[in-house]
Specification:
globular; Uracil-DNA Glycosylase, subunit E; alpha/beta; 228 residues
Amino acid sequence: MSPRTLCLLRARPRNNLEMDPLDRLLEDLARAQIGTTFNPYRDADPALDRPGAPAIRLANLADHLRARPRPALMLVGEAAGYAGCRFSGVAFTSERSLPAERWTSLDRRGRVEHSASIVHRILDELGLEDETILWNVCPTHPAGSTPLSNRTPTKDELAAGRPFLVRLMSILQPALIVAVGLHAAHALPRLPTIRHPANGGAAAFRAGLAAIAPTSTRPAEDDRGGTR
């Protein structure tokens, strides 16, 4: 996480209108209450989280999005998972894949989400890692019976999370947007859909992604710095 990003997020201007659209979206997300979900950008559990965890997670998300200002691809899942986005702040991402100073859990080894590892490995294999932004229809964590569990978000929670997705799409204008998994597909019926990598779906996820986005869709630059 860049010190500048964390500094900016901790010292936001009081007037929301003074921010650029992405800062404004992140500010609103950090204040949001989406049903009964856990907001990792606002909330912390002292039994699970390090001091300052929400600000670190928000900075991780800001860095992820700002590093890809012209994304070729946007993958959209259903909701933040307890082993991934709940601690990393980024959809389909384990905190262990980040530098240790960007972790937010009290787990000394860092939390790991198996499907997140698959997503990043396949994006890297297809040459799309640096051109893909990751998001969830419900950007917060719907916990199950315990904090370290998941449940299906309600229709109201999905509806409350969708405006954040629409705003992000408008701000970054990804060339291609793909729903990952049936639950995300049901919430976003107009988008192309690929198999979720969980529960033995890695091969189908890779095949679906390769078929939809076999190569980078970002315009190539010519020798003069323009596109062609």
